[in-house]
Amino acid sequence: MSRTIMGFDFGTKSIGSAIGQEITGTASPLKAFKANDGIPNWDDIEKQIKEWQPDLLVVGLPTDLSGRDLETITPRAKKFANRLHGRFGLPVELHDERLSTTEARASLFERGGYRALSKGNIDSQSAVVILESWFEALWSE
Questions:
Q1: For every one of its 141 residues, what pLDDT tens digit does the chain have, with 9 covering 90 and above?
Q2: Mutual angle of helices 73-88 and 42-52, in 10-degree steps
Q3: Judging by DSSP bridges, how do beta strands 33-36 and 39-40 pair with one another?
Q4: What's the rounded Cα separation, in Å, for the pair 108 and 64?
Q5: Which has fewest Cβ within 10 Å: 23, 29, 101, 128?
Q6: Which residues contact 66 (CB under 8 A, 6 or more apart)?
Q7: Stated pTM of the model
Q8: In terms of Cα–Cα distance, which of 139, 118, 107, 127 is closest to 54?
């Protein structure tokens, strides 16, 4: 059975999202949600969850290049993951997102040049990178 997985790239001003299928290991960008100091409009996220009916949510965990927590953003991403679980009752996993933004920028630039590099595009593409690297980690176990 293939699960539908929704990924999130948490940020204090914008939260990117993506949807992926476990069977193919690929993900597509969805919309980026505006956030007010890390707090999204939960109704918007609820609409998207109802529309896609994911089996699992994956939230990118921001760490430094050594994999250590970043003082301000890491705990907030964990809190966001806990709130997702609390509100929607879906299983939530955290996934190391060390290079997701860099990879997302490179991938968008290859496809669309500078015009493709809007903040929302980058955040949702980062969510794609997070989800696809989560699939890779799943399969390499």
A1: 689 999 999 988 999 999 999 998 889 999 999 999 999 999 999 999 999 999 999 999 877 767 777 788 889 999 999 999 999 999 999 988 765 556 656 665 566 555 544 554 667 888 888 888 888 888 776
A2: 60
A3: antiparallel
A4: 23
A5: 23
A6: none
A7: 0.82
A8: 127
Strands 4-9 and 56-61: parallel
Which DSSP string do the residues of 51-99 spell out, in sequence order?
Answer: HH--SEEEEEE-B-TTSPBPTTHHHHHHHHHHHHHHHH---EEEEE-TT
Q: Of the candidates 26, 44, 22, 24, which has an alpha carbon nearest to the alpha carbon of residue 35?
A: 44
Locus of tokens 């980062």: 126
First to last CA, the chain: 18
The residue whose two tokens read 């999130």 is 8
Asked if 25 contacts 139 with a C-beta cutoff of 8 angstroms, the reply is yes
Backbone angles phi, psi at 18, to 5 degrees: -150, 160
Tally of residues, the chain: 141
